[in-house]
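User: I've been trying to design a sequence by hand for this structure and keep getting stuck. Would you show me what you'd pick, starting by listing the structure so we're on the same page?

Assistant: Good idea, let's start from the same input. This is the structure you sent:
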């Protein structure tokens, strides 16, 4: 039983050391990820379009 008690005391101690992000940090991280994903998606769509056009012109 002392092992369980010791475990929960250690968990509580470690959890008190955790620094949770504030709303502004979460919002900034979300916007950064959204912008990067959007830019990569647009880039890949452009590359896909170029390759599709060039391949279809080679085939025809």
């Amino acid at each position: 039983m002392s092992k369980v008690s010791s475990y929960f005391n250690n968990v509580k101690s470690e959890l008190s050391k955790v620094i949770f992000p504030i709303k502004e940090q979460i919002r900034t991280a979300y916007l950064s990820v959204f912008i990067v994903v959007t830019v990569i998606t647009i880039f890949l769509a452009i590359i896909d379009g170029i390759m599709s056009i060039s391949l279809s012109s080679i085939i025809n």
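That's my pick for every position. To get oriented when you compare it with your attempt: Helices lie at 2-15, 23-59. The mean pLDDT is 95.
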